[in-house]
Amino acid sequence: MNIFGIGLPEMILIMLVALLIFGPKKLPEIGRSMGKAIKGFQDASREFESEFKREADLLEQPTPVAAKAPAPEPVSLPEPEQVTAEVISTPELTPVVASLEEVKELTTAKDA
Fold first, then answer.
1. Which of 33, 16, 35, 24 shows the shortest CA–CA distance to 8?
2. How many helices (H) and strands (E) in the chain?
3. Does residue 39 contact residue 33 with C-beta atoms inside 8 Å?
C-alpha cells in the first residue's frame, strides 16, 4: 500500500505521532475538519474544471455567418440652387474714448 509515496509503516508512525500530540479527544475533530477542507477543495476544483470546459466549448463553437444583404441602390440628389450674396459695405468703426460725463451728455441728448 503506497499513498502519496508513503508506505504503511510510515503511515502508522504518523498516526501514532498525531495521537500523542493531539490526544484521543481532539483527533476525531481534527480528522473531521481536515475531511471537510479536502471535500471543499475537491468541490472547488470540480467547479473550476467544469467552468473551464464550458468556456472552452463556447470558444470552439463556430460562429454563424450572417446572410449578406444586397447593397443599397444609390440615391440621386437634386442639384443645389445657386445662391448669390450681396456684400454690404459699412464704414469703418473706430473706437472712441470718452469720459463718463461725455457719455451722460450723449445719452441725455438722445432722450430729449
1. 16
2. 2, 2
3. no
DSSP states of 16-63: HHHHHHHHHHHHHHHHHHHHHHHHHHHHHHHHHHHHHHHHHHHHHSPP
- At 93 the pLDDT is 57
Query: The C-alpha cell of 28 is what?
Result: 476525531
Q: The whole model's pTM is what?
A: 0.40
Domain ranges of the chain: 24-60
Tens-digit pLDDT profile for residues 46-72: 999 999 999 988 888 876 666 667 777
pLDDT value, residue 85: 56
Q: Residues 14, 6: contact at Cβ < 8 Å? A: yes
Distance CA 50, CA 111 (A): 91
